Amino acid sequence: MEFITGVSEKKTVEISQILEGGLVGTRICVSGAIHRVRPMGEVIFVILRKAEGLLQCVWEDGVSPEEKPDFKGEETVAVTGVLRAEERAPMGVELLIEEIKVLSRPAKPLPFGISKKKVSASLETKLSLRPISLRNPGERAKFRIQEGIVRGFRDYLHSKGFTEIHTPKIVARGAEGGSNVFKMDYFGKKAELAQSPQFYKQTMVGVFDRVFEVAPVFRAEKHNTVRHLNEYISMDFEMGYIESFYDIMDMETGMLQYVMELLGKEYGRELSLLGAELPAADKIPAVTFQEAKKLVSEKYDRAIRSPYDLEPEEEALIGRYFKEEYGSDFVFVTHYPSRKRPFYAMDDPADPKYTLSFDLLFRGLEITTGGQRIHQYGQIVKKMEERGMEPEELQSYLMIFRYGMPPHGGLGIGLERLTMKLLGEQNVRETSLFPRDVTRLEP
Question: In whole angstroms, what is the distance from residue 71 CA to residue 77 CA?
Fold first, then answer.
């Protein structure tokens, strides 16, 4: 009879343990993939790739007891030897090889190099061979930073009394309406992939007051731009008992401050590798939709063409304006026109043509949409009818208002877009692990 206790003694050492110190001069075993081999005559430098970084190992003729090995790139190995100090090595230490155990061998050589700082292949090639390109330290650093963003989002909201929820992704009807939904057959019934967790996170405000979710959403738009994906990760939160939609912007600002601080403290190696500069989020300017359009029109001599929405060029100019005038990488644009916001957006009592809503622009790109929601049953039914909608079709959603809801609001943040602008990438596919767009369904 055996009992599994959940605790096992590891025979190998991780890079984090090496960096803690105290292992120089000791015999250790490290496992990893051979990232790069540099033969230098009687000395061979073998760079091991680990999740935490790269470790330099050295085989020395006459010192290492084994015969000269034939190292192959991407072999996975367990290397045993003595750790010694070496200032010129990536981490200030190197492992003098005494023994190498090959764990697996690749069947083919790599289709392109991954050992340099950046992969030289085209974006199309990198995405088609994603399992390979992600082994590059620079490529995988993007997703370590993305992990830090999600981790900070979760930690901060937990600290503010939010409950994490998990909502359905197969739904009877999309939250945003329109034709940009993926339709599917659900055991003979019509169903869709969720465009947003909107209806469910509002529902859960009536249960937990404050909720959040990090999950995929799906948009069946047929555009193929550098800023759009058909499946992306949305970081959503919804909060009840608000006094104003400014409460939501305050919460997002505090969250961003926490995330940037966390990235600076614990993801400095990845940020340095990618040359990424963290933005300041100590105070974020807020400007109304109409004022933002007017400011950039006057400063950059650009005619206002669309009175009801921001064009991508306008977003870029608004970002530029607030960077030049206030040194801010972020700007809240508030009070969007009602006709361009969903039916559940609360209209501004002072001027119903506008809503108590906002977008957050980061370095000239919209990364967040949010605002206050209608919470009175009669009011939301009236707005639906004014838009030609049939309340009967959304009875499961309207149920929450029929039986009472507090004033509430929330937002959704596009994780890939936020990561893209943070890292200075030009295409959102660079910051999606396995992007889905109009042409790509694999890998």
Answer: 10
Per-residue CA distances from 64 to 23, 30, 69, 79, 182 (Å) = 19, 16, 10, 12, 60
- Pick the closest to residue 358 from 407, 296, 285, 421 (CA basis): 285
Contact indicator for 340, 347 with CB cutoff of 8 Å: no
Print burial letters for 280-297: b (CB count within 10 Å at least 16), e (below 16): ebeebebbbbbebbebbe
How far is the CA of 389 from the CAs of 84, 325, 378, 385, 386, in angstroms? 72, 43, 14, 5, 7
* Cβ pair 17, 31 in contact under 8 A: no
Cα gap 390→215, rounded to integer Å: 29
Low-confidence ranges of the chain (pLDDT < 70): 175-179
Taking only the tens place, the pLDDT of each residue in 169-219 is: 999 887 666 568 999 999 999 999 999 999 999 999 999 999 999 999 999
Q: Are 415 and 435 in contact (CB under 8 A)?
A: no
Tokens of residue 372, six digits: 């206050």
What does the DSSP assignment read for 381-425?
Answer: HHHHHHTT--GGGGHHHHHHHHT---SEEEEEEEHHHHHHHHHT-
Rounded to 10°, the helix 415-423/137-159 angle is 120
The distance from CA 82 to its chain's CA centroid, rounded to whole angstroms, is 39
Cα separation, 279 vs 413, whole angstroms: 17
Containing 147, the helix (H) or strand (E) segment is helix 137-159
Nearest to 375 by CA among 350, 406, 347, 336: 406
